[in-house]
Amino acid sequence: MNARCGWSPVIRCNINEMVEIHEHQRVVLKEDLPTLGLAAGDVGTVVHVYDGGKGFEVEFFTLTGETIAVQTLAKAQVRSVGPRDVSHARSRDDAA
Q1: How many domains does the chain have?
Q2: How many beta carbons lie within 10 A of that of residue 21, not counting itself?
Q3: Pick from 36, 46, 68, 83: most CB atoms within 10 A?
């Protein structure tokens, strides 16, 4: 554990923000993308990393494997899956 993320009464650190994201890694969407029918918390798979991790091509799909969207996202729009994250199923509004 480095000093930046160790226990401290003053400094708080989100380890998910510091983990490097790679191709084929699952990531969590941090904001709603209503035009694509995606919501914050949806999980996607990185299919391409741009410019050393400044952006990502992410595929989002249903639990049965149907692709919903493949979207280019900035680093600030996604985060790594963390050890305390829990999967959650929701029905998608197909009108989006």
Answers
A1: 1
A2: 18
A3: 46
